[in-house]
Amino acid sequence: MESSFIAWLRTVSPPHPALGVGLGDDAAVLTVGGGGQLVVTTDLLTEGVDFLLAEHDPRRIGHKALAVNLSDLAAMAARPLAVVIALALPEQGGEKLARDLYAGILPLAARYGVAIAGGDTNTWAGGLAISITALGTPSPRGPLLRSGARPGDRILVTGTFGGSILGRHFDFEPRVAEALLLADRYELHAGIDVSDGLSLDLSRLAAESGCGASLDLAQIPVSAAAAQLAAQMADGRSALDHALSDGEDFELVLAVPPAVAEQILRDQPLAVPVTAIGEFVAEPGLWESSADGGRRPLVPRGYEH
Amino acid sequence: MESSFIAWLRTVSPPHPALGVGLGDDAAVLTVGGGGQLVVTTDLLTEGVDFLLAEHDPRRIGHKALAVNLSDLAAMAARPLAVVIALALPEQGGEKLARDLYAGILPLAARYGVAIAGGDTNTWAGGLAISITALGTPSPRGPLLRSGARPGDRILVTGTFGGSILGRHFDFEPRVAEALLLADRYELHAGIDVSDGLSLDLSRLAAESGCGASLDLAQIPVSAAAAQLAAQMADGRSALDHALSDGEDFELVLAVPPAVAEQILRDQPLAVPVTAIGEFVAEPGLWESSADGGRRPLVPRGYEH
Fold first, then answer.
1. CB contact under 8 A, B131 and A86
2. pLDDT at position A83 over 90
3. Shared domain check, B170 and B90
4. Is the domain of A130 the same as that of A182?
5. B13 in A contact zone (CB under 8 Å)
6. Which residues constitute the domain of residue A25?
7. What is the chain A residue with the closest CA to B97?
């Protein structure tokens, strides 16, 4: 539902003078008093869709609920400032559950200096829903948008991809520090975090930028978890398939001018590897570069809301 | 649960340099880039607690979900700037429901120039939960807190109280324009909006200010709905009882220096009446002033979360 609904919402939500970037990016950019800019994002996690209370420790659920929001700020190269947290809790054991969720939220908030600026905590006859809104301040170079990629930019990614369901989808560390360091030291054109699948989220970034993306599949950094999952499942999907489509990797995908990309690859300035996996091209769509220098269409795969 | 949980959360949430006012007021006050201040609030409405889908038009539910947040901003004398909206929707008919909710949200947002700065819209096997976070900018005199009342200040209220369940609890207009006008023209010391009950919310404001409040019960502006409800229910509760405890009036309660209060009462600058209903006193607690000049304790009543 989400993409058609967002398309509709874009048509019915009037433009606003304070809204520099609105619906459709990882976060919105607002102009606030004093001319400062604020980056705003919200993510809602619901029981049965994003987690199972019977299976998952509430501290891991709390961590994830905050981490997905911080990952959206990282995708904009924004420094986290504050969050507000709304919890719809089951009546039975609701307060205990809330404290356990916060036991996962608070250490992550402390690690990135995020203020808990408020919340609303209600019980009801329904299941657990966690709605967090995160506020951040853009890096001095301004917010990193999805729409800034240009043909010829290299596609750089942090970390490795695939198999997040084996644990990473709960326990990942949002790439906040990595995004701030890169945005501080290097010229970046565009960014997105991978929540729904590397190929799908990359194709969204390319579409917002009005260009296409061509992947060198041999260069995709495939995680050990992706290989493990491919071996376990025996459904014919390779580790690379998992890396391209599993999602919830919460790594960064960046569009970077070629010379700057070379510099980043030489510097390797992060604790996680940075890898070049292809380039943005003029022709819209997602492509796989072939050994003969040509391109074949590649179908973006991932989680469609 | 809510008050004990908030007390716990206050102890475990570390102070933050950007957080001028944190948990426990109607909204938080954040210092953002450029030294500007931002007022942030969040309210969560859930099916079965705040509304019944079988009974209430989704447009009224959407209106209310935004209006309660704008009412919190009004209580801080903050000008609404933007909102983000998270919807947990039932799988069956979720998209239609979302559009109907927005049909109630968008006109109210347009009326107060509020940007829709983003959202998250998911379906799940559970019921409808609506989480809205509202951002505003404080009036030039700064945010109006709960903690600023002083003994001797008059208690002023907008509008009338009681019987909101007959319709006002859904269809109220948040007192945004009223709060901004009053904060612009007059010196106000403290404010709160009445969500849980006039006597309960007033006692909270007094407690946050470290003082008490003494009510002249004969001066409470009792709504026609309160009288109607008292007549219908025949449970011994008077119209005044309803006015003191029903809640969801979403009117403003203000602490105002005596001379300023006299001026406001003479000016009557709003389209709704402003009424003086008592004064703040040094002795903590809630009081009823008696004809002989003395005071009797009054038990705060209202909706306890």
1. yes
2. yes
3. no
4. no
5. yes
6. 2-138
7. A5
Residues from chain B contacting residue A127 (CB–CB below 8 Å): 124-126
Complex ipTM: 0.93
| Contact yes or no for A97/B6 (Cβ under 8 A) | no
pLDDT tens, position by position, A119-178:
899 999 999 999 999 999 999 899 999 999 999 999 999 999 999 999 999 999 999 999
Nearest CA of chain B to the CA of A100: how many Å? 12
| pLDDT at site A2 | 66
Q: What CATH number should be reported for the domain holding residue A102?
A: 3.30.1330.10
Q: Which residue has the tokens 């709704």?
A: B272
User: Which of A210, A199, A41, A95 has the alpha carbon at shortest distance from B7?
Assistant: A95
Residue B89 C-beta-side C-alpha neighbours within 13 Å:
25
CA B84 from chain centre, in angstroms, equals 19
The span from the CA of B123 to the CA of A295, in Å, is: 37
Q: Is residue A276 part of a domain?
A: yes
Alpha helices in B76-165 (DSSP H): 94-111
pTM for the structure as a whole = 0.94
Both A36 and A170 in a single domain? no
In a domain, A194, yes or no: yes
In a domain, A91, yes or no: yes
**HSE-up of B169 (CA within 13 Å, CB side)?**
18
Same domain for B13 and B63: yes
Domain count, chain B: 2
Q: Please tell me whether residues B74 and B101 are part of one structural domain.
A: yes
Which residue in chain B has the smallest CA separation from A106? B13
Minimal CA separation from B94 to chain A, in Å? 9
Q: Which of A87, A106, A138 is the last residue of a domain?
A: A138
Residuewise pLDDT in 10s, chain B (305 residues): 567 887 888 888 878 888 877 677 778 899 887 778 999 999 999 999 999 999 999 999 999 999 999 999 999 999 999 999 999 999 999 999 999 999 999 999 999 999 999 889 999 999 999 999 999 999 989 999 999 999 999 999 999 999 999 999 999 999 999 999 999 999 999 999 999 999 999 999 999 999 999 999 999 999 999 999 999 998 999 999 999 999 999 999 999 999 999 999 999 999 999 999 999 999 999 999 988 888 999 999 998 76
**B126 shares its domain with B160:** no
Domain co-membership, B191 together with B286: yes
Q: Does B5 touch chain A (CB under 8 A)?
A: yes
Q: Residue A259 is part of a domain; what is its CATH number?
A: 3.90.650.10
| Secondary structure (3-state) at B254 | strand
- CB spacing of A95 vs B5 below 8 angstroms: yes
SS3 B286: strand
> Does residue A148 belong to any structural domain of this protein?
no
